[in-house]
Amino acid sequence: MEIIKTSIEGLVVVQPRVFEDERGYFMESYKESFIKNNFPDIHFIQDNESRSSYGVLRGLHFQKPPFEQTKLVRVIVGEVLDVAVDLRENSLTYGKWESVILSGENKKQFFIPKGFAHGFVVLSNSAVLCYKVDNPYEPDYDSGIKFNDETLKINWKLPIEEIIVSSKDLGLKRKSDKK
């Protein structure tokens, strides 16, 4: 596995080694020793999986302390634009975001530390995502930021009229309203 740094400290793309031939492919999607060597304070406790159709945008979600979550996100089938927004107030990149295309083809994984809001939009007909977390979901600590917050200026790669957002996510506040 290879770690590819982004412009935001701690936010990285993990590129697994993929062995392909005429029969298909093989890869290690998770290796505990790799995580311990590169992210020693992380202990993943749960795997989550979701399926969404074209244009579905989920996010931008995060959990408030003490239930913040580190995530390791990958796409098994399909393609998404995956986005993480730095909400760490003492960070030099506070309010900045990074995006990466995750797909069943490229096998990339997005490592998102605590202190980030996370969201994705499906670019293919459908997509199946799998992600590890290091803290349980706690509804009372659930929060988020509007996907179209004008201060973030995230390019979701789809026309706004093709984006499908839940009523819960439509009700999220702007980043500036979170303080």
Care to describe what's here?
This protein is mainly beta and 179 residues long. The protein has one domain: Sandwich (Jelly Rolls), CATH 2.60.120. 6% of the residues lie in helices and 44% in strands. It is built from 2 helices and 14 strands. Strands 1-2-10-7-12-5 form a 6-stranded antiparallel sheet, with no helix packed on it. Strands 6, 8, 9, 11, 13 and 14 form a 6-stranded mixed sheet that branches. Strand 3 and strand 4 form a beta hairpin. The N and C termini lie far apart (38 Å).
Number of helices: 2
How many DSSP E strands?
14
The total number of structural domains is 1
Q: Portion of residues in helices?
A: under 10%
Structural class of the helices, strands and pairings?
Answer: mainly beta
Rounded to an integer in angstroms, the radius of gyration calculated over CA atoms is 16 Å
**How confident overall, as mean pLDDT?**
95
Overall shape: globular
Query: Architecture in CATH?
Result: Sandwich
Uncertain residue ranges? none
User: What top-tier CATH class fits best?
Assistant: Mainly Beta
The CATH homologous superfamily is named: Jelly Rolls
User: Any idea of the CATH topology?
Assistant: Jelly Rolls
Give the ordered list of helices and strands. EEEEHEEEEEEEEEEH
Order of strands across the widest beta sheet?
Answer: 1-2-10-7-12-5
Outline the biggest β-sheet.
6 strands, antiparallel
Strand content: 35-45%
Through-space gap between termini: 38 Å
